[in-house]
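Q: Hi! First time doing this. I have a protein sequence and I read that you can turn it into a structure. Is that right? Here it is:
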Amino acid sequence: MSSEWARRWRQVPADDGAHHLRRLTHARAYHRSGRVTGVRVGVGELSGRVQGSKATPRLVELSVPVIPAGEWAQIVEIVADQARYSARLVAELAPEGLDAELATRGIELFPQARDVEVTCACSDPSTWCVHALAVWEAAAAQIDDDPFFLLRVRGRGRERLLAELAASRSRSSRDKGDPLAVAIADLDAERWGRGQQALDALLLDRPADAGPAPVLAALGDPPGWEGGVSAVDLFGPMIRRAAEWAAEIDRQPGEPVLGADG
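A: Yes, that's right. Below is the predicted 3D structure, encoded as structure tokens:
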């Protein structure tokens, strides 16, 4: 099933209205038949080779505008503050709903067709020739497999974005007065294997009626969850059992002993 991000990506040239349905159909046929190869993505750059009627594949290069740094700062803040976006990105799934939330702030995650510059040696005078459309279609398939493909062409690669998200969460914890938050510069390698505080300091009180898995209950069922029972009902008893076992180990001196089924 195509992701929402892949569908939105495919819609970009379609919104331009400068080509016919027949050209789109041919472009998708090129991709399905394996005639688009060597697709590469960089910050603001997308390229690929398309085997058309000529013996030599045509090189297609597309220049895609990047999102300004100030808007990227807002994107990082939003994703870092909402676990559902971060969790899906780490799982290499498109954070559904993120583009709509960004749009409310005037930030467009997807480029406009008129802002994309196409370079192709074919004789088609149109901005979006069939070869460019074929490479764009191949990129949609890449986005289906890895949402960082889109984020990279729009200005942020995987490593940089994940580092910025971690830094944003760290700043947020310090700003909120989290006593466990530590700046990276203050980390001590010699204390890597030792906790900074006693275990009791890490325990959080929770209401008696919070249930066996309050975090899972708050997050709700994961995307694509099916069946007649909710995730919290299915996994809650196991989470409760694990918590009780961990608490029992903490109360007993000596090395922990696995249960009969462990």
